[in-house]
Amino acid sequence: MNHSNKRKVHSVKPTSLRVYACFAALLLPLLLPAQTPSKIFSVTRYQAVIDTFLHQDSIKPPPKGAIEFIGSSIFRQWTTVTEDMAPLPVYNRAFGGSRTAEVLYYMDRIVLPYQPQIIVYYCGSNDINNGDQPADIAGRFFQFCERVHQKQPETRVFYVSINRAPQKMVRWSAVDSTNDIVKAYCTKARTVDFIDVNPVLFNEKNEPRYELYKTDKLHFKPEAYKEFTAIIKPILEKAWKSIR
Predict the structure, then answer these.
(1) What domains are defined for the chain?
(2) Which residues contact 124 (CB under 8 A, 6 or more apart)?
(3) 72, 95, 98, 212: which could join 102 in a potential S-S bond, CB 3.0 to 4.6 Å?
(4) Which tens digit of pLDDT belongs to each residue from 80-125?
(5) What is the C-alpha to C-alpha distance for residues 122 and 158, in angstroms, rounded to an integer?
(6) pTM, 2 dp
(7) Which regions of 123-239 does DSSP assign to beta strands (E)?
C-alpha cells in the first residue's frame, strides 16, 4: 500500500493558535467591504423634530381619516401643500432629510395614530445619495405599506417618484431602478399607486428644467410645486371621492 500521499496530522500548539487569531484580527478588516462614514447614521437623529410634531398634535391634532403627506425634505419644503390641495383635508408630516428607514422607525408615532385614509409618500432620494441599493430602498417602502395595511387594509398609498434631480445626475440609474421596482409593485397592489412627477421636471429637449430648482440643484422653488399640484391633486381628488 502506497502511503506517500497520506496526510500527516499535526497538533497545533496554543501559542500558534494565538498567533493565528491575532493575524486574522488584523487581516479581516482588509477583506471586508469598506464602510464609509456617510453610510452610518442614527434613525433617531430627527427626534427633536418628531417631538415638535407630537407636541403640536397634543394641542391641535390633525384630523383622523384624512390625507397625510410623509417623507423627506422634498415634501417638508412643500410649505403650501395644505393650501395647494384644498379643500382636500391634507396635512404634512415630512421631516428633515429623512431616509426610508427613518420613516419606518417613526411611522408608529406620526402616521398610524392618525389613521389616514390616503398617504402620499416621497422618500428614497437621500437613500440614493447614501449609496443604498434600489431593491433595499424599494423594500423599505414595501414594509411601510405592509405595516399600514396591517392596521388599515383600505388605506390608499401613493408613491411619488424619486426626482431625477441634476444634483444626483450620476445616480440617475439608481433613481430609475428604484422607481421601476416600485412601479412594478404598484401595478399588482390593490391599494398602492405610483405617481410620476419626473416628466414635468424636463423640457422638450429632455433636459432638466433648472429654473425649477434652488441653487443646490436638488430642492425646488415654488414653481415646481405648482407643477406637482397639477399632477397630484386630480389623482387625490378622484381617490378621495371614491372613499367618501
Answers:
(1) 44-243 (3.40.50.1110)
(2) 72, 99, 100, 137, 138, 141, 162, 178
(3) 98
(4) 999 999 999 999 999 999 999 999 999 999 999 999 999 999 999 9
(5) 9
(6) 0.83
(7) 156-160, 192-195
